[in-house]
Every structure is written in structure tokens, then in C-alpha cells.
Amino acid sequence: MRLYIFIYIFLLSLNLFSQVYSYDKKYQEQLVDNAIEITDKQKEEVRSSLNKWANFYLDKKYKYNESVLLKHPLSKENKKFHFDCSGYISAVYWSSNIAVFQKQAVLDSGGVKTIYATLSKYKKIYKDALPKTGDIVMFDRTTSNTEKLTHAGIVLSVDEDETVTYAHASTSRGLVLGYMNRKYPTIYMKDGKIINSYLKRGGGVEALSSQLFNSYGTVLDVP
Q1: CA distance 118 to 219
Q2: How far apart are CA 154 and CA 137, in angstroms?
Q3: Which tens digit of pLDDT belongs to each residue from 191-201?
Q4: Which of 130, 144, 152, 158 has its CA 20 to 30 A from that of 44?
């Protein structure tokens, strides 16, 4: 399915633009007829916007699952979000005018599964390439030893050594930074730098982010 079926973009003043996603079948038909493919420059603007809002809410130091009434920067609509991991992602994408994850803000632990299912539908899930800013990283077994798709975060950057820095909602610390380097999946720290964060209680190798990694998801191009 081509990208323009998935993304509908209309240009706004000051070179801003928005993306609107919908679960409504009639709306999807309109996208096929009217949507346009976006340029590489616009894709970078999407990623820049996601990075901006991810850091904006990170700096607010919201507590885990804190209920916050947000005002949309363009439409001025007010909407309540619960800042668990999927609610945080929903808030960031909504503030960037990307409404693909409308539902998971109220689905609690099912929110990550909703994100995965939505992106999987459009073949936007990948595992074997490095992510880009704004992509979503998803994890398994963070709350049990067997359950899949239990946690997620937003990629902020990727270092030269392939350490991925992501922002996520920690149950104990609220919104925080996390790190993952799949080249060194059993190492917490290398050369004085954290390269794999602990994502579940108990510690040990099995609690490291690389060990719990499921996949990445994107609303733009799959690498």
C-alpha cells in the first residue's frame, strides 16, 4: 500500500503541514482520491516536529500515567492524555498533528498492541535496520516473562556507535530517556556510557532493552 494512501498532508502557513489518519473507511477512500505523496523535506519536518514534542513533554517531567489536558498547537482543541508509554506516544503524535494513534491513549496496557497493529496494517514495522528520529521502538516482556508488546518509546536520536536514545514513560520514574544498542545486547555500559537501559525489575542481562526489543514502527518510510 503506497504511502499516500496512509498519509494525507495539506500545507499550512510558515511551511507547517499536518497529517491526518483515520480508521473510517469512507475517509480512507477520500485519501486515495485526494492525497499526495510527501517530499523528503516534509518527511524531515515530520521527524523534527515529533522530536520537538517528545522533548517538550519529557521536559515537563510528567509522572507515569498522569492525566494531562493538552491544547493542540494548531487547532486549539483540548484533549486529555494519560502519560503511560502509549499515552505519551499518542500525545506526541497528536501534538505533531498525526492522529494515527487516537485510540491507544485510553487503552492502557493494550495501547502498544494498538500501535503495532495499526502500523503493521500498513507494513510500517521493521526490525533489522537502524531507526530514525520519531520512529517508535516496541518491547516485549517488560511486565511479565511471556507477554509481547508491553512497552514502547519514541526514538530521539541514533549515535555513531548505533546506540538508540529513546524517550518513554517509566512506571517508577515517569517520562525519562532510555538507551538501546543491539550490537552489544548483553552490555549495560560501555566506555562509561549507558548503551542498554534496564526495562524491567530484577536487573540482569534479561532486563536490558536489547533483550526485550520487539520491533520498530514508523509513519514514514521503512528503512
Answers
A1: 10
A2: 6
A3: 999 999 999 98
A4: 152
Per-residue pLDDT tens digits for 72-84: 888 888 999 999 9
- Other beta carbons within 10 Å of 71: 11
pLDDT of 144 strictly over 70: yes
pTM to 2 decimals? Answer: 0.84
Distances (CA, A) of 148 to 13, 77, 174: 42, 34, 22
* Closest C-alpha among 222, 218, 221, 179 to residue 93: 218
Alpha helices in 69-208 (DSSP H): 85-95, 111-121
Residue 159: what residue type?
D
